[in-house]
Specification:
Blueprint lengths: L12 E5 L2 E7 L8 H15 L8 E4 L1 H10 L3 H9 L6 H14 L4 H14 L3 E8 L15 E6 L2 H13 L4 H10 L7 E7 L5 E6 L8 E8 L3 H5 L5 E6 L5 E5 L5 E6 L2 E6 L2 H4 L6 H18 L3 E8 L2 E9 L6
Antiparallel strand pairs: 1-2, 2-3, 3-6, 4-5, 4-6, 7-8, 7-13, 8-9, 9-10, 11-12, 13-14
Helix pairs in contact: 3-4, 4-6
Length: about 325
């Protein structure tokens, strides 16, 4: 796969669906994105790519498509009823019923075929498919890791459609439902889906532009392979504290990174990392400072401290996600 391929997705892909109009939009087209349309993740990616940051090319299946899917399968009233019955005692049972109903639904042929247009334009052998709920990644709610993401999916229409349905169903994972209960957020909300070229990362990481314990620093975490191992906490990443003003690296904690995830033939495979490599610093100091500078520019763009996912492939830094760090007072 050519991870640096340039795609110019400028047109709108329009689906006529029982009197409604649904739009699938490229990230570069979303110059004035709305979270109600593209969700929190889609919003931040569109803002980044349209402000010159290096973001994998892709498109967003807007939140309206999710409701069209539910109506097509006569699920709206059933799910509304089940959602109204959710509380701290029933959320496990009710959320599973809703997920099962969603996964058993049929993807309308109009929508499935319409996804093929931007997929062909994307011209990427493998893609990432990410949930993007409308209330996630806001200043009041994060939902980080609560909805599903599917990595390194082969760009076959049936596989992409299947992953899109799974993203919709993940609106009702037990973790997400319980989080909404605690935050008093409605359960049946819009869910957009972001489809992007898959970047075969050699190194991935997360940057918190405000360090959790060091007021004048930011925190860069890094490990080998694609980022799921770090985000899920399955490896101990390197931690680098970087001064926000001078970009001086003030502290390092080199983790033991004995496993990594790699893209392999349409799957994500976990492999062992040799002991000597596992104990080494993942990226050189100059690259750490470069990442820190990029992330501080992203914070400046969003005007709020950010939790930023990134990766490195073919010596190029890619931005994969940026969300507000909830609860930070600046």
């Amino acid at each position: 796969m050519d991870s640096t391929c340039q795609i110019g997705l400028k047109r709108k892909y329009v689906v006529q669906y029982k009197g409604y109009m649904t739009i699938i939009k490229s990230l570069t087209e979303l110059t004035e994105p709305k979270t109600s349309e593209v969700g929190g993740k889609g919003y931040s990616l569109a803002v980044l790519i349209n402000n010159g940051f290096n973001v994998p090319q892709g498109f967003v299946i807007t939140s309206d498509v999710f409701f069209k899917f539910l109506k097509h399968n006569n699920l709206m009233k059933k799910i509304e009823k089940l959602a109204s019955e959710i509380d701290e005692n029933t959320f496990g049972e009710k959320s599973k019923e809703i997920r099962d109903l969603t996964l058993d639904g049929d993807m309308p042929e109009d929508i499935a075929s319409e996804i093929e247009g931007p997929m062909n334009k994307l011209n990427s052998q493998y893609v990432s498919i990410r949930s993007s709920a409308i209330s996630e990644d806001s200043l009041k709610a994060s939902f980080a890791g609560l909805h599903d993401t599917f990595l390194n999916i082969k760009s076959a229409p049936e596989l992409v459609s299947d992953s899109v349905e799974k993203c919709w169903a993940s609106l009702f994972t037990e973790r997400a439902v319980f989080y909404r209960i605690r935050k008093a957020i409605p359960h049946l909300e819009g869910m957009a889906v972001v489809v992007q070229e898959m970047i075969p990362a050699e190194v991935s990481g997360v940057t918190f532009t405000v360090h959790p314990t060091k007021e004048k620093s930011l925190l860069v975490e890094a490990s080998y392979g694609i980022g799921d191992m770090t985000v899920s906490g399955n490896v101990e990443p390197d931690d680098y504290a970087v001064n926000r003003e001078t970009l001086e690296i003030t502290e390092k904690k080199i983790g033991y990174k004995d496993k990594m995830s790699i893209c392999q033939s349409g799957q994500v495979e976990i492999i062992e990392v040799e002991k000597e490599l596992a104990e080494k610093q993942v990226i050189p100091d100059e690259r750490i400072k470069e990442i820190a500078k990029i992330c501080l520019n992203i914070e400046k763009l969003f005007k709020y401290p950010q939790d930023i996912e990134w990766c490195i492939s073919d010596n190029k830094i890619w931005l994969l996600q940026s969300r507000a760090i909830t609860g930070v007072v600046r």
